[in-house]
Amino acid sequence: MSFFRNQFANVVEWEEFREDMIFWKWSNREIKKGSKLIIRPGQDAIFFHNGKIEGIFQNEGEYNIESQIIPFLSTLKGFKFGFNSGMRVEVLFVNTKEFTVRWGTQNPILLPAPNLPGGLPIRANGTFNFKVNDYVALIDRIAGMKDSYLVEEVKLRITSVLDQLLMKWISREGKDMFNLQANAFDIARGIREDLDMQVLSTGLTVTGFQVMSFNYPHQIQDMINKTASHEMIGNVGKYQQISMTDGMASGNVKGGGAAADMAGMMMGMNIAKEMMKNMDPQNPQAGGSGQGSPQGAQPAGADDGKKPNFCPNCGAKNEGANFCSNCGQKLA
Description:
This protein is an alpha+beta fold. The chain has helices spanning 2-5, 65-77, 135-143, 151-173, 184-199, 218-233, 236-250, 258-279, and strands at 11-12, 21-26, 30-31, 36-39, 43-49, 52-57, 61-64, 87-88, 90-95, 99-104, 109-113, 116-132, 148-150, 204-215. It starts with a helix and ends in a 53-residue tail after the last helix.
């Protein structure tokens, strides 16, 4: 036994640890008696020989291989340690954490859409999560041929099929092609299940998949925004008035100065007047019963034959004409 006491005490540990490394293999060296095994937090150490797992050690700490590891292996698997030589085995260190990876479509996905012969081009982005869950499959399919495995390699495998899966699940769950975000949860759930089947045979499992946003081309997004604005306002005339008011306030409407200020004031008064009509329950035009109005009284807004000094639509000054010389609004 003094022979082994004079041997160099090797340290078996994860020497090339990286946060984005899924596993790393300690191999092609003999484990001497007196060697130590070091397992750090978030790591598992797997002893395997001739492609077969001999033992899995999951508790972090420092272990004496001769007194703590070898007896366990011998009892569990009948593993024998040579008396006159070291033990040539491989130790696979596995990162046990859950990895989070960002993804994004590299090219637009053309979704079938009515009135768009070439399809609706969209992009998407988000994140997915995965971790190691089957050491036997991991060794059989990957670790048996590689000394290390990086997150980037898993990302490449997943993104290579992601476009087809997005097409599949958007077509199935995307009831409104112009509001895909409303169905993002169901789309992501279906993609996660399919991706999990893609990597399950390699000892990995996809634990989560999220779609953060769907992005449309700039022109289509502008159309969506404009349509949504019209629907929210509900009245194109009022939309035009509000747009002009905003333009005057921002200085984007030409012909500023006193005329612009007067036009803005008149427009504001007219808008306020319309709001008061809609809010007055006694106003017949607002949908009220009109029981509170005196009999024979002139209805609000009735034409009294007088021509306004300023156009109620654009605010331009009127010189007694029947129609506004600036916007064509009828004045009498």
